[in-house]
Design goal:
Number of strands of chain A: 10
Structural class of chain B: mainly alpha
Order of helices and strands of chain A: EEEHEEHEHHHEHEHEEHH
Mean pLDDT of chain B: 91
Number of helices of chain B: 8
CATH superfamily of chain B: MetI-like
Bound molecules: adenosine-5'-diphosphate, magnesium ion
Distance between the termini of chain B: 63 Å
Strand content of chain B: under 5%
Oligomer: heterodimer
Shape of chain B: flat
Structural class of chain A: alpha/beta
Low-confidence stretches of chain B: 213-217
Largest sheet of chain B: none
C-alpha cells in the first residue's frame, strides 16, 4: 500500500506552471530522495504534500488523508506528516522542550508529563537530551536542525518531509544531521527528502526522483539512477556536480 | 487675583493626574480595539480586512479633535448629553485603537512568515498560532513603538480641554487666567509633561536596545 500517492498534480503561481502533472507513489517505510536543479519544483511538490501550497488539479493522498485546503482536514493531515525546513524554523521564544511539547499538548491533548517523556525520547533520538532547557539561539545550526527533526518526530508522524535540511549548514555540521536522518531511515520511517547531498541520496534513499522543469523527469532505484542515468538532462545534472 | 503658589501648583499636579487617568483609559480601551483591528486587518476574510482597513484609514485621516467634537457636540445635538470625561475617553480610545492597530499589524507582520508555516505544519489552529507562536514574538517587537506612541498620547490628551475637561493643560490655562503669570505657569506645566514623557521615551529607547539584542531571527 502506498502511503503517499501523488497523481497528476498541476500547480501554478499565476501564469507560471511550476508542477506540470507530477505523479509519485511512496510505500510505507520507503525513503525517496528528490534531486534536481534550483527552480525545478522540488520544494513546491514537497509543500503540496502537507498542504502548505494548494494545487489546481490532480490529487494527493497521504496516510489516508485526501489533501485539501479545508482547515480541519489540513490539521488532521498535518498530525500525520512532519516537515523539516532548510531554515530550521524553531520557535525562538520557546525552549527546546517547549518547542517539542507544544503541539502534542495543544493539538493532540497529550498531558504535560507525558509530553515531557516524549520530548526526552525524541531528543535522545537526535542526541540532544542535554539541550532540553536551552533556547534555540544558544544552539548551533546543526543542533537546531536536529531539534526541528525531534519536534516533528514528537507528533509520531507517518511520513516525514525534508526540504534541503542541510543546505544552510556549514559543511562540518551537515554530517550530524544526515546521521540522524539515516538512523530514522533505518528505523523504518517513510521519508521524502529534497537534497543536494548526492552521496546521501545514493546510499540511503531506496528511490531517487529527478525533477526537471516541473516534471518528474526520471525516477528509479537510487543505485541504478546514479549509475545509469537514462536522460540527457539527468546525465548533465549529475556530471555538473551542481550544488 | 491670586499668586502662583503651592495651592496652584498642587492643582496643576492633580490635573496632571487626570491627564494620566485619561491616558490609561484610552490606552486600555484603545488596546482592546487596536488588537482586534490589527488581527482583522490580517484576517483571511476579505470583509473583515476591508472593514479594519477603512476604520484605520478614516480615523488616522481626521484630527482627533474632530472625533472629540463629534462625540461631545454631535451626540448632544442628537439629544444624548454625555459628560466630558466620557466624551474624552471615547474619542481618545478610538484614536488610540487606530494607531495601535497599525503599530501592532506591523509587529505581527514582522514575525518571519516561516513561523506561520512551521506552526501550521505542526497542526496548530490559527488562534493557537497567534496565541503560542506569533503574538509572543510580535509583543517583543511592538513594545518600543507602543511605548513611543504612549508619549504622543500623553501629550495629545491636552486636546480634551476644549470640551471643558480639566486636565493638565486646561489647568494651566485656568491658573494663568487667575494669576497672569504665563511664563511661570506654562514653564511648570511643560515641566510636568516632561517629567511624565521623558522616562517613557527613555524606556522606549531602552526596550528597543534590549529587545533587539538576543533576537536570532
Ligand atoms: N510563492 C511563489 N510565488 C511565485 N513563484 C514561486 C513561488 N514559490 C516558488 N515559485 C517558483 O516556482 C518554481 C519552483 O520553485 P521551487 O519549488 O522552490 O523549486 P526548487 O525547490 O526545486 O528549487 C520556481 O520557478 C520558483 O521561482
Ligand atoms: Mg527548494
Amino acid at each position: 500500500m502506498s502511503v503517499v500517492a501523488i497523481d497528476q498534480v498541476h500547480k501554478r503561481y499565476g501564469a507560471l506552471e511550476v508542477l506540470k502533472g507530477v505523479s509519485l507513489s511512496v510505500e510505507t517505510g520507503q525513503v525517496v530522495a528528490i534531486i534536481g536543479r534550483s527552480g525545478s519544483g522540488k520544494s513546491t511538490m514537497l509543500r503540496c504534500i502537507n498542504g502548505l501550497e494548494a494545487f489546481q488539479s490532480g490529487s494527493i493522498t497521504v496516510a489516508g488523508h485526501d489533501v485539501q485546503q479545508e482547515p480541519t482536514k489540513l490539521r488532521e493531515l498535518r498530525k500525520d506528516v512532519g516537515i523539516v525546513f532548510q531554515s530550521y524554523n524553531l520557535f525562538p521564544h520557546l525552549t527546546v522542550s517547549q518547542n517539542i511539547t507544544l503541539s502534542p499538548r495543544i493539538t493532540q491533548g497529550v498531558k504535560a508529563a507525558d509530553a515531557e517523556v516524549i520530548a526526552r525520547r525524541v531528543l535522545s533520538q537526535v542526541g540532544l537530551l542535554e539541550k532540553f532547557d536551552a533556547y534555540p539561539d544558544m544552539l548551533s545550526g546543526g543542533q537546531q536542525q536536529r531539534v526541528a527533526i525531534a519536534r516533528s518526530l514528537a507528533m509520531r508522524p507517518k511520513v516525514m518531509l525534508f526540504d534541503e535540511v542541510t543546505s544552510a549548514l556549514d559543511p562540518e555540521l551537515t554530517g550530524e544531521v544526515l546521521l540522524v536522518m539515516e538512523q530514522l531511515a533505518k528505523e523504518g520511517m517513510t521519508m521524502l527528502l529534497v537534497t543536494h547531498e548526492m552521496s546521501f541520496a545514493r546510499s540511503v534513499a531506496d528511490l531517487t526522483v529527478f525533477m526537471h522543469q516541473g516534471k518528474i523527469w526520471e525516477a528509479g532505484p537510487s543505485k541504478e539512477l546514479f549509475e545509469y542515468p537514462k536522460t540527457a538532462e539527468l546525465q548533465a545534472f549529475l556530471s555538473s556536480g551542481v550544488k | 487675583m491670586s499668586t502662583f503658589g503651592w495651592p496652584e501648583f498642587l492643582f496643576l499636579l492633580r490635573s496632571a493626574g487626570w491627564s494620566i487617568v485619561l491616558t490609561v483609559i484610552a490606552l486600555a480601551f484603545g488596546a482592546v480595539g487596536g488588537g482586534a483591528f490589527a488581527i482583522m486587518r490580517l484576517a483571511n476574510n476579505a470583509v473583515l480586512r476591508t472593514i479594519a482597513a477603512i476604520y484605520i484609514l478614516v480615523i488616522q485621516s481626521i484630527p482627533v479633535l474632530m472625533i472629540l467634537f463629534m462625540a461631545y457636540y454631535g451626540l448632544s445635538i442628537a439629544g444624548v448629553e454625555i459628560p466630558p470625561l466620557l466624551a474624552a475617553s471615547v474619542s481618545l480610545s478610538i484614536y488610540v485603537s487606530a494607531y495601535l492597530a497599525e503599530i501592532w499589524r506591523g509587529s505581527i507582520q514582522a514575525v518571519p512568515p516561516q513561523q506561520w508555516e512551521a506552526s501550521a505544519s505542526l497542526a496548530l489552529t490559527r488562534p493557537q498560532q497567534y496565541r503560542y507562536i506569533i503574538l509572543p514574538q510580535a509583543l517583543r517587537i511592538s513594545l518600543p513603538p507602543t511605548v513611543g506612541f504612549l508619549v504622543q498620547l500623553v501629550k495629545n490628551t491636552s486636546i480634551v480641554s476644549v470640551v471643558g475637561f480639566v486636565e493638565l493643560s486646561r489647568a494651566g490655562q485656568l491658573v494663568n487666567n487667575a494669576t497672569f503669570r504665563p511664563f511661570e505657569v506654562f514653564m511648570v506645566v511643560a515641566a510636568i509633561y516632561f517629567a511624565i514623557c521623558f522616562p517613557l521615551s527613555r524606556l522606549s529607547r531602552y526596550l528597543e536596545r534590549v529587545l533587539h539584542v538576543g533576537r536570532s531571527h
